[in-house]
Write a structure and sequence with these properties.
This protein is 24% helix and 25% strand. It is of the alpha+beta class and 151 residues long. The strands form two sheets. Strands 1-4-5-6-7 form a five-stranded antiparallel β-sheet. The protein has a two-stranded antiparallel ribbon with strand order 2-3. β2 (86-88) and β3 (94-96) form a beta hairpin. The chain starts with 13 loop residues before the first helix and ends with a strand.
């Protein structure tokens, strides 16, 4: 049984099962060959320190006061492949900002202004040194960067 350091549910991660993940505990915090900042945080400062870090990130997201974005209460460990969207640029090209094999903290919440016909969601992603909030439609269609902020 694969085990995480942060409490993530490794057994139900479809990405890890199909991409050779040995689990965070077994790989000493490098589940996809890269050091996970969450595991490093816990191994260095303990779970209490990590929980305080996560609470501060949640407060940072909430303090952005983005219209239509509900208050955030939790962030989850997520593999980059799930949250690394291709954003359209003014040049017509698309750009991915994240690393598919890196672990981030994130969440998805439904926009409070949805009218029933056009459902939009906010995707939140945090690394050790940035916050990213994007808005997108069904199946992550038409993503738009709302905030990218260095910490």
């Amino acid at each position: 049984m694969k085990q995480s350091i942060c409490g993530a549910d490794c057994e139900n991660c479809g990405y890890g099962k199909n991409n050779g993940c040995a689990g965070c505990a077994e790989s000493k915090g490098c589940p996809f060959g890269k050091k996970c900042f969450i595991a490093q945080y816990i191994n260095t400062g303990g779970k209490d320190s990590y929980n305080l870090f996560k609470e501060n990130l949640i407060e940072e997201f909430n303090s952005l006061n983005i219209p239509g974005m509900p208050k955030i209460h939790e962030l989850y460990a997520l593999i980059g492949a799930y949250v690394n969207l291709a954003y359209p640029m003014p040049s017509g090209n698309t750009v991915k900002l994240l690393d598919d094999k890196q672990i981030y903290l994130g969440n998805q919440v439904e926009c409070e202004f949805n009218d029933g016909e056009l459902a939009r969601c906010y995707g939140l992603v945090a690394g050790l040194d940035f916050l990213l909030v994007c808005e997108y439609g069904a199946n992550c269609s038409n993503p738009e960067i709302i905030v990218y902020k260095k910490r």
